[in-house]
Design a protein that fits this description.
Length: 377
């Protein structure tokens, strides 16, 4: 009988708490969004399942010597996985639309306004609520959610606020996945029907030499002006140079296929390890989720409003919708812009125009992370 009692106490049923049940429900919701709705499935599936693994009571999967703990220590705690993801993103990215219309870089920069506005909001929330206590480092890590760039959010959180990594990563990737739901109402509210119908000029062809020189110039400028952002920018530009050089197709193919796919699996599982009930269920988590949504909305609105302002001084009209693509959810934000534009004008193709601010947003979020790391790290 004593043996049966010990066996009962070792079962998951006996050790489970309401917190484990709640977090399991959250993880199943992430899986539902990925599988049923198709929202960022490449990331939400491993994150959701990793969260389920982390909430198996008594298994110790998230402990330092556990399955997920080993993965976390190998590539997230030291920032390696986000950098490898950025290398793959660089290989997949075509900066041609940005080079063809350089002024769209301003829209990518404007979308980063949400990052710094949310940093201030996090500090204010900490001052106003006794049960939430965010340091400046915490506020900086939370603010980066507004850039809608998951790897950048993880990279900065591991440096500034590792204890908040789970909530920050889930907020960043969840809002990236919900771009088709969050952005359109903001875009329609800030633009008129006539503005959404604006047809932009066809982009000029971009020469191969421009595409080769661009990553080198961006890297040199970053190294000279903001060394703290060099890891992210360097990985991004190295991946892009592999693709654009045309002489290392095998390496470029590995970066944009095998490497990024393997690291995405490991990164998702490692982030999921931080969704255990013991680490996730705190008042700060709700504050992070709320602030992340605010950051994302502010970034979207800032890009649209700057595009409207640019139209006042520009000879060639800009469809303000493309400003919403300044958040670096590539390429989903650009696709949403194209869809909303076609609702107003079915013959209007905004996808390539929106890719300019979209890829500029990737650079912008990495630069913003470098600034925060230099100021708060």
């Amino acid at each position: 009988m004593e043996g049966f009692v010990r066996l009962w106490h070792d079962t998951g049923i006996a050790q489970a708490t309401w917190g484990h049940a709640l977090m399991a429900a959250v993880c199943f919701a992430l899986l539902w969004l990925a599988i049923k709705k198709g929202f960022e499935p490449l990331l939400l599936v491993p994150i959701g399942f990793g969260g389920l693994l982390a909430n198996v009571p008594g298994a110790g999967i998230s402990e330092p010597d556990g399955f997920l703990g080993i993965i976390y220590a190998a590539g997230v705690a030291n920032g390696l996985f986000p950098l490898l993801i950025f290398m793959g993103v660089g290989a997949l990215t075509d900066f041609g639309p940005l080079l063809a219309n350089p002024r769209t870089a301003l829209l990518g920069a404007a979308a980063q306004f949400g990052i710094f506005a949310t940093l201030i909001g996090a500090v204010a929330l900490s001052d106003m609520t006794p049960w939430i206590d965010f340091s400046m480092q915490d506020a900086g890590a939370i603010g980066i959610i507004g850039g809608a760039d998951g790897p950048t959010a993880i990279f900065l959180a591991t440096r500034l606020a590792p204890d908040l990594l789970g909530a920050i990563a889930v907020a960043a990737y969840s809002y990236m996945a919900l771009v088709p739901l969050i952005q359109p109402p903001i875009m329609r509210a800030l633009t008129t029907e006539d503005e959404r119908r604006i047809v932009m000029k066809q982009l000029r062809p971009v020469r191969r030499v421009e595409k080769i020189v661009f990553p080198l110039v961006v890297f040199v400028l970053c190294a000279l002006l903001l060394p703290s952002a060099t890891p992210l920018i360097g990985a991004l530009m190295f991946g892009n140079l592999l693709s654009e050089s045309g002489v290392v197709d095998r390496l470029a193919g590995a970066a944009k296929n095998e490497l990024i796919n393997i690291v995405t699996i490991l990164l998702g599982l490692a982030v999921g390890s931080k969704l255990s009930a013991e680490k996730f269920l705190h008042p700060e988590t709700l504050g992070i989720l709320a602030l992340g949504l605010v950051a994302f909305c502010i970034g979207t609105a800032a890009g649209v409003l700057l595009a409207k302002l640019m139209n006042l001084v520009s000879r060639d009209p800009i469809n303000p919708l493309i400003g919403a693509a300044g958040v670096s959810a590539v390429p989903m934000a650009a696709r949403v812009v194209n869809r909303v534009g076609q609702e107003a004008n079915p013959s209007n193709l905004l996808l390539m125009h929106a890719m300019g601010p979209n890829v500029a947003g990737v650079i912008g979020s990495a630069v913003a992370a470098g600034v925060l790391l230099a100021l708060l790290g």
